[in-house]
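re: the backbone from monday

yeah here it is again, tokenized this time
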């Protein structure tokens, strides 16, 4: 637990080398251009990072969740906007098909996502169903052998670029989560369209949009899991996704820390490096300690998931702590950079904006605390 196996070290180092040589140099430019980096997506796929824990028979790398977490932290260290695309492809679009899909669904949908041939997205959130995900209003109506979906999803990462979408519709809105079904839909099906593109505070190169379903006819073969069993699919998927966001947060935190340490040694005030001022040393100590704690929580959650433990508690604790750690570290890094930290010329300014999303998506910090408290008070 406290050291990596040779295999785990190898995947981490491979992802680190790629991230620092191929992703990091363009991160600032992508932040300004907001352009989704399809070429990096393809390179990540070639390295097997778009289906890290997908078995080889379905086109994946056949590794474990721990490997995925190690690789994702490295990608997010270089560019958290690229990292979230990888995270959605693996955790949110790929994992539910792996866990709940039929063999045919895995061949048809999981395999092209794992090889990077197709881009996946996960559409649960609606204008009035975010934290309260059971309040799904997208209607799912049975019509012969098909289901017909009508509704709008919002805040969908990879939305404008996705070919395959794992989504949800409700057969009985009054019954709330008990009426929810999960579906795999294709972007070129009639009735599927991309709505408003969101302009965001950070993770600019990841694309985010509404998805609009108008009379979207989905064959019953595309039902994922059981009819009205979709909420279980959604929640189980988010548990794993939260470990991915914890890894994303760790990457941001570690980068902020490394930049802050380097700058503190170089920048001089009152005739000495600011690293010699105790106030700065305390910030560095707090950042380092929190990163270490966040990494242990994240690695433990991934390890438990690899052992078949499907509980939410450790996933929520890792996500809560790592995301708040990323915000803390980015805040302190900007502080250590002083006025320069507020300038777009310095990377910590981007990290500060990128960190902000981690306490919001895949369950806000308040929702993680609800999950943890529910478990504690059971
Ligand atoms: C950039 C971005 C990308 C995203 N990507 C995706 C995606 O790919 N797929 C997808 O389905 N969704 C995605 N989301 C949606 C995201 O998961 C939701 O925004 C998030 O779950 C919060 O929902 P909400 O925005 O509706 O906030 P609300 O649910 O309206 O919450 C507002 C505030 O109230 C608090 N709150 C709500 N309920 C409670 C409660 N019971 N107790 C205490 N506090 C509470 C919240 O913590 C928050 O502070 C994305 C969002 C963003 C911003």
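seq for it, each position gets an aa:
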């Amino acid at each position: 637990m406290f050291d990596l196996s040779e295999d785990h070290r190898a995947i981490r180092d491979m992802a680190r080398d790629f991230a620092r040589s191929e992703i990091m140099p363009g991160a600032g430019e992508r932040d300004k251009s907001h352009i989704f980096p399809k070429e990096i997506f393809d390179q990540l796929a070639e390295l097997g990072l778009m289906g890290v824990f997908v078995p080889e028979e379905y086109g994946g790398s056949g590794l474990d969740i721990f490997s995925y977490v190690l690789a994702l932290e490295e990608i997010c260290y270089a560019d958290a906007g690229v990292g979230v695309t990888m995270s959605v492809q693996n955790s949110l679009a790929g994992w539910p098909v792996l866990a709940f899909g039929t063999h045919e669904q895995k061949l048809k949908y999981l395999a092209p996502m794992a090889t990077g041939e197709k881009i996946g997205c996960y559409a649960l959130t609606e204008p009035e169903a975010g934290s309260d995900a059971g309040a799904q209003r997208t209607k799912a109506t049975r019509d012969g052998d098909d289901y017909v979906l009508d509704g709008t999803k919002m805040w969908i990462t990879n939305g404008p670029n996705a070919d395959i979408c794992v989504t949800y519709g409700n057969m009985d809105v009054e019954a709330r989560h008990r009426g929810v079904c999960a579906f795999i839909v294709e972007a070129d099906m009639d009735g599927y369209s991309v709505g408003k593109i969101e302009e965001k505070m950070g993770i600019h190169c990841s694309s985010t949009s509404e998805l609009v379903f108008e009379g979207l006819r989905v064959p019953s073969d595309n039902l994922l899991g059981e009819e009205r069993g979709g909420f279980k699919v959604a929640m189980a998927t988010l548990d794993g996704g939260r470990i991915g966001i914890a890894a994303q947060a760790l990457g941001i935190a570690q980068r902020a820390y490394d930049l802050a340490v380097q700058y503190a040694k170089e920048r001089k005030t009152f005739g000495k490096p600011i690293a010699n001022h105790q106030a700065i040393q305390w910030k560095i100590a707090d950042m380092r300690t929190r990163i270490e704690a966040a990494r242990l929580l994240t690695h433990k959650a991934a390890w438990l998931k690899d052992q078949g433990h499907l509980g939410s508690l450790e996933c929520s604790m890792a996500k809560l702590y790592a995301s708040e750690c990323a915000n803390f570290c980015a805040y302190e890094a900007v502080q250590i950079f002083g006025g320069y930290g507020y300038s777009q010329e310095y990377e910590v300014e981007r990290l500060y904006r990128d960190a902000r999303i981690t306490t919001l998506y895949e369950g806000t910090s308040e929702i993680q605390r609800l999950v943890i408290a529910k478990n504690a008070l059971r």
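The chain has eleven helices and ten strands. The pocket of flavin-adenine dinucleotide is lined by residues 88, 122-125, 130-132, 155-157, 200, 208, 357, 360-364, 366-367, 370 (CB under 6 Å).
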